[in-house]
Design brief:
The structure holds two protein chains of two kinds. In chain A, 44% of the residues lie in helices and 18% in strands. Chain A is built from 15 helices and 14 strands. The relative contact order of chain A is 0.16. Chain A has a six-stranded mixed beta sheet, with helices on both faces. Chain A has a four-stranded parallel beta sheet with strand order 7-6-5-8, sandwiched between helices. A two-stranded antiparallel ribbon of chain A has the order 1-2. The longest helix of chain A is centred in the middle third of the chain and has 24 residues. In chain A, helix 10 links the parallel strand 9 and strand 10. Chain A starts with 12 loop residues before the first strand and ends in a 10-residue tail after the last helix. Chain A is α/β, with parallel strands linked by helices. Chain A folds into two domains: 155 residues, Rossmann fold; 216 residues, 3-Layer(aba) Sandwich (Rossmann fold). By secondary structure, chain B is an alpha/beta fold. Chain B has one domain: Aldolase class I (TIM Barrel), CATH 3.20.20. Chain B is 50% helix and 14% strand. Chain B contains twelve helices and nine strands. Chain B has a nine-stranded parallel beta sheet. In chain B, strand 7, helix 9 and strand 8 form a beta-alpha-beta unit. In chain B, helix 6 packs parallel to helix 7. Chain B is globular. Classes of the chains: A alpha/beta, B alpha/beta. Chains A and B meet through helix 1, helix 8 and strand 11 of A and helix 3, helix 5 and strand 6 of B. Chain A: GO terms for molecular function: tryptophan synthase activity. Chain A: Tetramer of two alpha and two beta chains. Chain A: It is an enzyme of class 4 (lyase). Chain A: Its EC number is 4.2.1.20.
Chain lengths: 405, 270
């Protein structure tokens, strides 16, 4: 399941991106994670345990649903949804989390820390830790704990300690800073269960490999369903884990166009955006060289997106590489476009998507218009929208100001 | 190559049979002009070397005190250009000035341009807490060209192989992180510090590269304890805390000066 291409190189580089820009104190731990993963992925016992969890606990393989009604709003192109929203805990995040939680146990560590923005990765991590009996601490920006109070309660219900981060912009990037600070102080018994394909090597590779199953399943499902490969694969991109998840298996298929849809916020040409490939520039952030929203002196700019899960001022380094080489294309989707696609999928297919995933759906609408009715578009529906009902209800004015129906 | 001011300062301390006192302050804290005055007070109190911090929005290796100080500096509008002005003023005090910076601001400014402007301002080198030698190709070339010292970090978790590789890439000194953790005051010096310095000495026997210890040192007694085995004692959060706690700048300057005096006593009491 984990043979995703020749990249990165030995030092974790994807072309001019990636690498390891981390404090020396963490290098030994990063080496340990890398070495353990190389062993685990070739260990039949580890693979069997992970495969059993993915099947019987997560519910894999996830379904492939044809969105016939929604297709009418996509220029008539056939739209196939990879239903990661149907996984246990409600998103693709669980694939990576289960793999890393098993890895934590293999390394003899008893404590797991993680960052979370919207709470999806935090909930998935708290879930795996409950299952495997690991101590769990989740760092979450104070701002996000307010926006996603329900997910804070879910994590606490599952036995995790949730630490609100009150420094900096009090969002995802600051939660990651704080998790790294915890890790360096407690690395002997702690694994940092990183949630996306960003960060210092080996995290971008490890997280990609653990999500490889998504694209691998989808590729076979599309071939079986339509008898050929899709013309395009679409996914939303914040840090970029669900996009790498669905892209990786298709990278060698040159006929398949790969599209990452970034969170444009108010617009990628405005200051209120999270579109780091479209609006950012190469820099070093959270341990890797990648595209970053930054000012002329290299200070990180605050990001904005209606979707907390995409509200991140950088992107995983392999996406930076895929953008650089032209193998994948990245386009911004505004908050308004995403919310329109969110509404459409609810009404036409009876599926409430995560607002993150709605960016991919909005992208699919644009692709369908461009490619026409003969096209087949695979969309990674990375998560379900239960967590976003408050945000969406407020956005569409479905509740009054007291929250009453 | 002629010695940098940093190398000279460390050699002088070694000849005097003491450790050097290295004080850290973010440039621009609490504002650009005042930070120069704080640094002057640090030097008057006895700092041999000043680490001028380049305040960064995402200081992953720093605890709450230095985070707050850097936030104040950024809120006061401090830029990389201000850092060079503070370095220039620091060098004018007679102390050696080195910059401590996360890597992205340097890369963004342009590695060669940064090195050239720092050298022009009288800076002696740069401490890079999130840059390891494996990623430092451009920095090695630029620092060589501008005659700047390259100070990388070693940590208690560094393997012997990495200690040898990292110290071979350093000039000026190697920054030994006393403990596994971030910056900030601690009640006692971690027992990992002495072990790390001993292990580092084993790989620097031939080069004689000075080993300076930082993280968690904030009293004269701790400075004396570390001075017994290290070539330099690095103190940061303790200085920042005194400015954060002071009701006004003048009070803060007095507190900083007397704190530096205490520490300067410590490094001579090895």
């Amino acid at each position: 399941m984990s043979h995703a291409g020749p990249l990165p190189d030995h030092g974790g580089h994807y072309g001019r991106f990636g690498g390891r820009f981390a404090p020396e104190a963490l290098i030994a731990a990063l080496d340990e994670v890398e070495a353990e993963w190389e062993k685990a992925k070739n260990d039949p016992a580890y693979q069997a345990e992970l495969a059993a969890l993915l099947k019987d606990y997560t519910g894999r393989p996830s379904a492939l649903s044809e969105a016939r009604n929604f297709s009418e709003h996509c220029g008539g192109a056939r739209v196939l949804l990879k239903r990661e929203d149907l996984n246990h805990t409600g998103s693709h995040k669980i694939n990576n989390v289960l793999g890393q939680a098993l890895l934590t146990r293999r390394m003899g560590k008893t404590r797991v820390i993680a960052e979370t923005g919207a709470g999806q990765h935090g909930v998935a991590t708290a879930t795996a830790c409950a299952l495997l009996g690991l101590e769990c601490v989740i760092y979450m920006g104070e701002e996000d704990t307010r926006r996603q109070a329900l997910n804070v309660a879910r994590m606490r219900m599952l036995g995790a300690e949730v630490v609100p981060v009150t420094i900096g912009s009090r969002t995802l990037k600051d939660a990651i800073n704080e998790a790294f600070r915890d890790w360096v102080a407690n690395v002997d018994r702690t694994h940092y269960l990183f949630g996306t394909v960003a960060g210092p090597h080996p995290f971008p590779k490890l997280v990609r490999d653990l999500h490889f199953v998504v694209g691998e399943e989808a590729r076979a499902q599309v071939l079986e369903r339509v008898g050929r490969l899709p013309d395009a694969v679409a996914a939303c991109v914040g840090g970029g884990s669900n996009a790498m998840a669905v892209f990786a298996a298709f990278i060698p298929d040159e006929s398949v166009a790969l599209y990452g849809f970034e969170a444009g916020g108010d617009g990628a040409d405005t200051p209120r955006t999270a579109a780091s490939i479209t609006a950012g520039s190469p820099g070093v952030f959270h341990g890797a060289r990648t595209f970053v929203l930054q000012d002329e002196f290299g200070q990180t700019l605050p990001s904005h997106s209606i979707s907390a899960g995409l509200d991140y001022p950088a992107v995983g380094p392999e996406h930076a590489y895929l953008a650089d080489t032209g193998r994948a294309s990245y386009e911004p989707i505004t908050d308004a476009e995403a919310m329109e696609a969110f509404r459409l999928l609810c009404r036409t297919e009876g599926i409430i998507p995560a607002i993150e995933s709605a960016h991919a759906l909005a992208g699919a609408r644009k692709l369908g218009e461009r490619l026409g009715p003969d096209a087949v578009i695979l969309v990674n529906l990375s998560g379900r929208g239960d967590k976003d009902v408050d945000t969406a209800a407020a956005y569409f004015g479905l509740v009054d100001t007291e929250g009453q129906a | 190559m002629t010695a940098t001011t940093l190398q000279t300062k460390l050699a002088e301390a070694r000849e005097a049979g003491r450790a050097a006192l290295i004080g850290y302050l973010p440039a621009g804290f609490p504002d650009p002009d005042s930070s120069v005055r704080v640094i002057q007070a640090m030097v008057e109190g006895g700092c041999d070397v000043i680490e001028v911090g380049l305040p960064y929005s995402d200081p992953m290796m720093d605890g709450p005190t230095i985070q707050r100080a850097a936030d104040r500096a950024l809120a006061a509008g401090t830029t990389t250009e201000d850092v060079f002005r503070v370095v220039e003023a620091t060098a004018a005090t007679g102390a050696a000035a080195v910059v401590m910076s996360y890597w992205n601001p340097i890369e963004r400014y342009g590695v060669e341009r940064f090195a050239a402007n720092l050298a022009k301002a009288g800076g002696a080198g740069v401490i890079t807490p999130d840059l390891i030698p494996e990623e430092a190709g451009a920095w090695t070339a630029a620092s060589e060209a501008s005659g700047l010292d390259r100070i990388f970090l070693v940590a208690p978790s560094s393997t012997d192989r990495r200690l040898a590789m990292t110290t071979a890439a350093c000039s000026g000194f190697v920054y030994a992180a006393s403990l596994m953790g971030v910056t900030g005051t601690r009640t006692q010096v971690a027992d990992t510090a002495a072990t790390l310095v001993r292990r580092t000495r084993e790989v620097t026997r031939e080069s004689g590269l000075p080993v300076c210890v930082g993280l968690g040192i904030s009293t004269a007694a701790q400075a004396a304890e570390v001075a017994a085995y290290a070539d330099g004692v690095i103190v940061g959060a303790g200085f920042c805390q005194r400015i954060l706690d002071a009701p006004d700048l003048e009070t803060g300057l007095t507190a900083v000066r007397s704190f530096a005096e205490e520490l300067a006593g410590g490094v001579r009491d090895r």
